[in-house]
């Protein structure tokens, strides 16, 4: 659960753009004067209201770094010193971004917890001064207001936000393995109440403006404007500023109250919070929940609870001290390094490094309305792509159409879409049984049955009806793309696009290029994937590509462990407590035992002994008995519709008994079992980099975490080797190699890293 | 949605209270706005085209427009429509059997009389051999009724058509919730006691919460007032400007009422009540009093208030439209020609009320006229902010280039020719009936002040708009 939760939360990273500072903007400022134009922050005076504008140059977002902080302090000092000014408005000049957070590179350079603590304390001091400002300051928020940005906003006396989809507020620090270190853990509970503050800080979720208003996080909303005599975004910011100025004046004249009127429920909750016993109960409940969900693998949530507790129980000074100290401790943990690494990797994988394609894909066609095909259709129409969805039967097609509709309708229920928007998005989807309209298609993605002959057949049919420039993408999880492309007239237009199920939830897209795939085809596929909101890794063609290839040896080890008599439930517990979102046996059921068998056989043929370990016979027998996993209702577990509890499939006992292998006691401790699983994954991943399947370690980490559920707290196989130490990894592998043989032999690149301590995947 | 309507009702009540308190006030700003008819040469002497029938307005009337919840509150929509029809019959003396067809516009339909045109016509004593249908296109419903009539006559299908519109906001259909309706319908079908009981056992108290007719746009879920406030903000129209414009509208309407220009009104003897002879929403106030009102939609800092918005109104209007030949053959002296018209539509979210901006240049181009050719402008005033935003949009090259695909702006209408007998803000706005009032005001102004062309334009829910050229009938 933890990891799936962490993955889910990581998926929200996308919202907060780039937190990194761009290059170094060299500037020397020594004198502060009103005439001096500053780089990031400037202010003007309208009547008796100072309008402070944040606008970091050469960047789409504003981030808090040292320069910004010192400029802000300068500006505030001038405003406090100026008798003409009675109040102030703090606003960003960038539509779509207030302040996206603090610059995480500030932390990367810290070598001791004390350094990080100092960073936190500087922020705390700055915001404390702002909070105690004798002149009211109104934060006018349009666009992302996250992390340090939100901490800045809640230190102001009043907050006004545009009611825009782009306006999101949140404290996502926990997703980076740290905590809101500039007073956030202290101010938030007072502002929105302890339960809501815990929810925000422990999940890191983004909160939309209208919700924020209800919670009391912002005081007023401003509706975004349409076109007037200026572009809408520009005028909306202006309008926000105008409204903020009237409120700033009102605050200075004491005509506007900063206290929001609370409902009965809020009053009751805040009353309850004054009772120490109630507070203790809340801490206890939250702690228990966190421990259960994180399985002790993520330190940040518990420290957040501690910091909140310190503030509420022992007063502000103790609270701020606890916050900054725990911030310092967290900043240097392996977990935060792993999570920040994932964040950076994700930012990289959200860019198209192949440049803009010559022709934008406007008409997309998808073959096969199965789970995958319909899933791909959903994420495509959602982003305004006209999509043809072709299947061979009416039943298959309508099932697929219903899946797309349901996916959109679920968003309506969550109020992420209006029913009208749903209908208009759904009208982008055209279901059909023939090839009508394919003559206009810019890209065809096939998601038909995983069988080379079938793929060849549709490829030939499609090439017969599509224009010359049309790209043929295959959504296959294991069939080599060059084999599919072998019958193509235009192999440079053939590419692999490996989506993960369920497509609308899983963020990863693995794009596979063959030697013949043109760069423009790749650029197009990446552009489509980005449009669909995917995090993309681009890998070379080869059996199993990257993700399936790493999964296969791991699953082989899982079979081996089961054959050695470990109970599937126990194996699930062991793997989840190591950080996997889904237990290993459950994973096999989810993937589908038949698929697993297919992959194991194919890759077994291609890679030979290295993929050995478990016996494929186990999977074969399961398939022959119809134990295909969740989809057939039985696998290692029995699944019942509507019931979340699953019980072990007792019929598996016979199969397992017939294939029983003796466990080797020297490598069968719980820890050994966990490491055997993870080591085979890591070794194969590093081999993929060695062989050039992967272009960068970052893509390898992103693929492993987002596609396969590799423990996010480890940061991915490459980050794991860096943080864990290559030598230790090699030692482990050698130990298992001596027990089992060649499948554990460490690859050359891993050995190189072990031999030279200076070699790291991430510098 | 229900909250929206209740809030509208609340606003209404404040409006009326406000209206009561500050009912009569001397006007100050209206006189200089009266214009001398501009003497200039026209691009075209007439818009008559060879081989195309001239279509004329023979007569047009309306019953007084009243604040909803006042004298008409116990009536049904077809009662108002019938009164307008009777008034038209009386004033034009047209033989009932000459009328080929009757079309009415309405917006919020009374479910009992969904074809309100037919019910009203039967009651007004028209021949039961005269077919009638009802059209709906939000605030331009009666415009649609008129242009449908124009189409029928131009294509030779009819010679004499009555077009009109009606709206009764004093009563609106409030329904049971969908769940309740479903249960009631299922109960109808249930055959045994057991089936009935099992259905009844599914009843929950929330089934009883009623469903109010939507005042919000279906597509965007935004009320029109809210959209108007955003529109005003987008065009940087201040609260002061809006209040000033509303005051102008009320002052001019009062003057027109006092001087007897609102000659399209026919008195209506309301059953059980006194005869209503004039509009009751005209209430010139002072800027100071208007400034005291709180914003009605975007709270607490919006600019659209009850005082600078049109109010919920009951009313009906009707017009007799004929081919010129037929009118002359019957011995009528027509009031005006109905010429080119244009419907437009645009983004219902951010440009909901910009219909006039889009329609004006198009209809002028179609007719071969320019803004200078127009002697009288009659625009529907939904909100002060909407009118002023339209002015700014029409006067902006940037807007014309970026949103309308035009090279230059069309220009905003000169105020001295604009709605000088008041508008929807002051006279009232029964949704389905306003279009005919606009055209009759335009025709009567041309007759009185001697101009040649008038331009009628209106915005409507759904982001639609309409414009039509009215040409004076030679004296």
Polypeptide structure, described:
The complex is a heterodimer of chains A (763) and B (475). Chain A has 763 residues and is α/β, with parallel strands linked by helices. Chain A is 50% helix and 11% strand. Chain A is built from 31 helices and 20 strands. In chain A, strand 11, helix 15 (371-381) and strand 12 form a beta-alpha-beta unit. Chain A is globular, with a radius of gyration of 28 Å. With 475 residues, chain B is α+β, with helices and mostly antiparallel strands. Chain B has 15 helices and twelve strands. In chain B, the strands form two sheets. In chain B, strands 1, 2, 3, 4, 5, 8, 9, 10, 11 and 12 form a ten-stranded mixed beta sheet that branches. A two-stranded antiparallel ribbon of chain B has the order 6-7. In chain B, helix 2 packs across helix 3 (116-123), helix 7 packs across helix 12 (384-394) and helix 11 (355-367) crosses helix 12. Chain A binds chain B through residues 220, 223, 225-232, 235, 239, 243, 246-247, 418, 420, and chain B through 218-221, 226, 229-231, 233-236, 298, 301, 347, 349-351, 389, 392-393, 396, 398-399, 402-403.
């Amino acid at each position: 659960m933890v990891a799936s939760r962490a993955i889910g939360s990581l998926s929200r990273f996308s919202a907060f753009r780039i937190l990194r500072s761009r290059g170094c903007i060299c500037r020397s400022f020594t004198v502060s004067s009103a005439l001096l134009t500053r780089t990031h922050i400037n202010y003007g005076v309208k009547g008796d209201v100072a309008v402070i504008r944040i606008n970091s140059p050469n960047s789409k977002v504003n981030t808090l770094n040292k320069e910004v902080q010192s400029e802000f302090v300068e500006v505030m000092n001038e405003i406090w010193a100026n008798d003409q000014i009675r109040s102030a408005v703090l606003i960003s000049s960038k539509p779509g971004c207030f302040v996206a957070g603090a610059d995480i590179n500030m932390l990367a350079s810290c070598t001791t917890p004390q350094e990080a603590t100092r960073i936190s304390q500087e922020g705390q001091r700055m915001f404390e001064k702002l909070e105690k400002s004798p002149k009211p300051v109104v934060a006018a928020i349009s666009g992302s207001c996250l992390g340090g940005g939100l901490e800045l906003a809640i230190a102001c006396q009043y907050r006004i936000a545009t009611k825009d989809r782009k306006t999101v507020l949140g404290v996502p620090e926990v997703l980076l393995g740290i905590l809101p270190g500039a007073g956030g853990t202290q101010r938030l509970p007072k502002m929105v109440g302890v339960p809501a503050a815990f929810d925000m800080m422990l999940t890191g979720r983004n909160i939309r403006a209208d919700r924020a208003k209800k919670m009391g996080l912002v005081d007023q909303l401003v509706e975004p404007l349409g076109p007037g005599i200026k572009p809408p975004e520009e005028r909306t910011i202006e309008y926000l500023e105008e409204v903020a100025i009237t409120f700033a004046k009102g605050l200075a004249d004491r005509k506007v109250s900063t206290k929001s009127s609370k409902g009965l429920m809020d009053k009751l909750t805040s009353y309850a919070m004054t009772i120490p016993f109630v507070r203790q109960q809340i801490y206890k409940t939250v702690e228990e929940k966190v421990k259960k969900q994180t399985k002790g693998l993520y330190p940040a949530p518990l420290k957040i609870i501690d910091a909140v507790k310190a503030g509420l129980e022992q007063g502000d000074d103790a609270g701020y001290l606890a916050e900054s100290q725990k911030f310092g401790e967290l900043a240097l943990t392996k977990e935060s390094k792993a999570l920040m690494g994932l964040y950076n990797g994700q930012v990289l994988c959200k860019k198209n490094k192949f440049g803009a394609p010559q022709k934008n894909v406007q008409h997309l066609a998808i073959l096969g309305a199965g789970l995958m095909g319909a899933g791909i259709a959903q994420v495509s129409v959602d982003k305004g792509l006209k999509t043809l969805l072709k299947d061979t039967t009416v039943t298959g097609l309508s099932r697929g159409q219903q899946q797309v509709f349901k996916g959109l309708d679920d968003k309506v229920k969550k109020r992420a879409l209006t029913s009208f928007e749903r209908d208009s998005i759904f009208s982008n989807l055209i279901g059909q049984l023939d090839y009508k309209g394919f003559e206009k298609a810019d890209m065809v993605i096939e998601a038909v049955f995983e069988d080379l002959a079938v793929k060849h057949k549709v490829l030939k049919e499609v090439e017969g009806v599509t224009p010359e420039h049309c790209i043929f993408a295959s959504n296959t999880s294991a069939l080599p793309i060059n084999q599919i492309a072998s019958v193509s007239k235009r192999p440079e237009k053939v590419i692999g696009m490996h989506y993960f199920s369920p497509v609308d939830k899983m963020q990863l897209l693995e794009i596979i290029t063959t030697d013949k795939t043109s760069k423009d085809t790749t650029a197009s596929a990446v552009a489509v994937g980005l449009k669909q909101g995917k995090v993309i890794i681009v890998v070379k063609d080869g059996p199993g590509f990257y993700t399936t290839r790493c999964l296969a040896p791991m699953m082989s080890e899982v079979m081996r462990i089961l054959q050695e008599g470990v109970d599937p439930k126990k194996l699930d517990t062991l793997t989840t407590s190591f950080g996997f979102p889904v237990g290993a046996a459950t994973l096999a059921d989810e993937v589908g035992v038949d698929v697993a068998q297919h992959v194991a056989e194919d890759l077994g043929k291609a890679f030979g002994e290295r993929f050995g370990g478990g016996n494929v016979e186990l999977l074969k027998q399961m398939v022959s008995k119809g134990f295909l996993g969740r989809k057939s209702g039985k696998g290692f577990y029995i699944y019942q519709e509507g019931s979340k509890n699953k019980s072990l499939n007792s019929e598996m006992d016979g199969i397992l008994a017939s294939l029983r292998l003796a466990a080797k006691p020297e490598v069968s401790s719980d820890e050994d079992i966990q490491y055997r699983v993870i080591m085979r994954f890591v070794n194969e991943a590093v081999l993929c980099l060695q062989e050039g399947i992967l272009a960068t370690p970052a893509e390898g980490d992103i693929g492993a975490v987002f596609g396969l559920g590799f423990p996010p707290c480890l940061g991915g196989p490459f980050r794991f080797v860096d943080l864990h130490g290559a030598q230790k990894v090699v030692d482990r592998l050698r130990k298992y190699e001596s027990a089992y043989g060649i499948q554990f032999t460490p690859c050359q690149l891993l050995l190189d890293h072990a031999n030279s301590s200076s070699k790291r995947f991430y510098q | 949605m229900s909250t929206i309507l209740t809030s509208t009702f609340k606003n209404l009540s404040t409006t009326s209270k406000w209206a009561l308190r500050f009912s009569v006030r001397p006007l100050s700003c209206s006189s200089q706005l009266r214009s001398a008819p501009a003497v200039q040469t026209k691009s075209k002497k007439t818009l008559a085209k060879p081989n195309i029938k001239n279509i004329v307005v023979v007569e047009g009337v309306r019953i007084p427009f009243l604040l909803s919840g006042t004298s008409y509150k116990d009536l049904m929509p077809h009662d108002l429509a019938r009164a307008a029809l009777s008034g038209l019959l009386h004033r034009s003396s047209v033989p009932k059997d000459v009328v080929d067809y009757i079309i009415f516009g309405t917006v919020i339909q009374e479910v009992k009389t969904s074809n309100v045109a037919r019910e009203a016509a039967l009651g007004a004593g028209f021949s039961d051999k005269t077919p009638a249908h009802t059209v709906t296109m939000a605030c331009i419903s009666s415009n649609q009724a008129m242009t449908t009539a124009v189409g029928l006559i131009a294509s030779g299908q009819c010679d004499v058509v009555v077009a009109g519109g009606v709206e009764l906001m004093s009563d609106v259909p409030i329904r049971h919730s969908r769940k309740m309706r479903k249960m009631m319908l299922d109960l109808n079908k249930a055959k045994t006691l057991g089936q009935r009981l099992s259905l009844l056992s599914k009843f929950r108290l929330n089934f009883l919460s009623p469903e109010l007719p939507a005042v919000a746009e279906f597509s965007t879920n935004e009320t029109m007032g809210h959209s108007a406030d955003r529109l005003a903000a987008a065009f940087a129209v201040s609260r002061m400007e809006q209040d000033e414009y509303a005051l102008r509208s009320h002052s001019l309407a009062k003057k027109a009422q006092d001087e007897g220009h609102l000659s399209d009104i026919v008195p209506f003897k309301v059953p059980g009540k006194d005869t209503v002879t004039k509009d009751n929403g005209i209430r010139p106030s002072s800027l100071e009093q208007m400034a005291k009102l709180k914003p009605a939609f975007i709270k607490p800092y919006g600019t659209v208030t009850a005082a600078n918005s049109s109010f919920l109104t009951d009313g009906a209007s009707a017009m007799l439209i004929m081919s010129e030949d037929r009118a002359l053959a019957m011995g009528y002296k027509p009031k005006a020609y109905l010429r080119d018209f244009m419907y437009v539509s645009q983004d219902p979210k951010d440009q909901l009320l910009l219909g006039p901006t889009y329609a004006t240049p198009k209809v002028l181009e179609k007719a071969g006229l320019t803004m200078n050719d127009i002697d009288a402008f009659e625009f529907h005033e939904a909100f002060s902010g909407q009118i002023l935003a339209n002015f700014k949009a029409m006067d902006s090259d940037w807007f014309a280039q970026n949103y309308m695909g035009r090279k230059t702006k069309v220009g905003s209408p000169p105020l001295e020719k604009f709605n000088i007998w008041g508008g929807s803000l002051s006279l009232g706005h029964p949704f389905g009936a306003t279009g005919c009032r606009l055209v009759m005001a335009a025709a009567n102004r041309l007759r009185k002040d001697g101009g040649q062309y008038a331009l009628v334009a209106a915005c409507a829910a759904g982001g639609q708009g309409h414009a039509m050229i009215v040409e004076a009938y030679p004296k």
